[in-house]
Amino acid sequence: MRNEVSDKDEFLSLFFTFIQQDLLDESGGTDLDPILSHLAAFCHWSAKEKDVLRGSLGAFAKFLVDNFFLPLKASAVKTPQPTPAPSHCETAIGTLQRLSTLRRDCLRRDRHRCVITRKFDAQEAESRYEKDGRNLKDDDGKSLLPECDTIAYLEVAHIITHSLMSLTGIEADNTQAYSNQTVHRILKMFNPSAIDLINGVGADRPMNALTLTRDLHT
Q1: I need a surface site. Which of 7, 26, 137, 198 has the fewest CB within 10 A?
Q2: Which residue range or ranges hold the HNH nuclease domain (predicted)?
Q3: SS3 196
């Protein structure tokens, strides 16, 4: 059974080790053989065994909510909104420059629209009006005049914040350190390479940010 678990399947280890404690009443550490063998015989399980699995799946879902989604929401602070960086700027150095570049890149990627409401950015609309007058258009070449009453000021919001990614500087707070370590384990479960991609200054990449209206960025 072990040979059937490739490196690409390692992200499932957290899930399997979690339900193993319920189904087999034991902790297998990194050894997934017992739980995988047990699950392979699912078609022969009793109704009671299936009920235990159902309860374990519910408990795992609660584990994700309590240890990932709620901490993610609690750690969310409004991302500072510096002036967009000019397109000719050199490699960003320092937080403000990175955030400026992040804002610029996200607005371009999302076509200057909120990813949820699809409202166009008021600041960009004002700039285009000064340049093109009533002939102003959106990024797809459509007139913005019909949207003049619905445009809104947009902001760029981090998905995973720096504070939630950091494992340094929190040694004195064991609870926070454990919480962040758990977040890292869950992130690795979703995507083994996610931590490396958005750790440190990588958190200020467009892949870790969304364009939202101010009222949605809370």
Answers
A1: 7
A2: 114-218
A3: helix
Q: In angstroms, rounded to a whole number, what is the distance separating the alpha carbons of residues 162 and 57?
A: 30
Are the C-beta atoms of residues 217 and 157 closer than 8 Å to each other? yes
Task: Assess whether 150 and 61 both reside in one domain.
Answer: no
Domain-located, residue 85 = no
Helix (H, G, I), strand (E, B) or coil at 144: coil
In this structure, is residue 82 part of a structural domain? no
pTM assigned to the model:
0.66
Question: 78, 155 in Cβ contact below 8 A?
Answer: yes
Helix axis angle for 13-23 and 174-190, nearest 10°, is 110
CB within 8 Å of 168: residues ≥ 6 apart: none
Q: Is the CB of residue 212 less than 8 Å from the CB of residue 155?
A: yes
Strand locations in the chain, DSSP E?
154-158, 209-213
- Does the pLDDT of residue 134 top 70, yes or no? yes
CA-to-CA dists, residue 150 to 54, 77, 111, 144, 218, angstroms: 46, 26, 16, 10, 20
DSSP, residue by residue, 115-141? TTT-PBBHHHHHHHHHHHGGG-B-TTS
Maximum average pLDDT range among 48-62, 112-126, 153-167, 200-214: 112-126
End-to-end alpha carbon distance in the chain: 47
Q: How far apart are CA 75 and CA 77, in angstroms?
A: 6
Q: Which residues contact 13 (CB under 8 A, 6 or more apart)?
A: 30, 32, 189
The Cα–Cα gap between 120 and 203 comes to 25
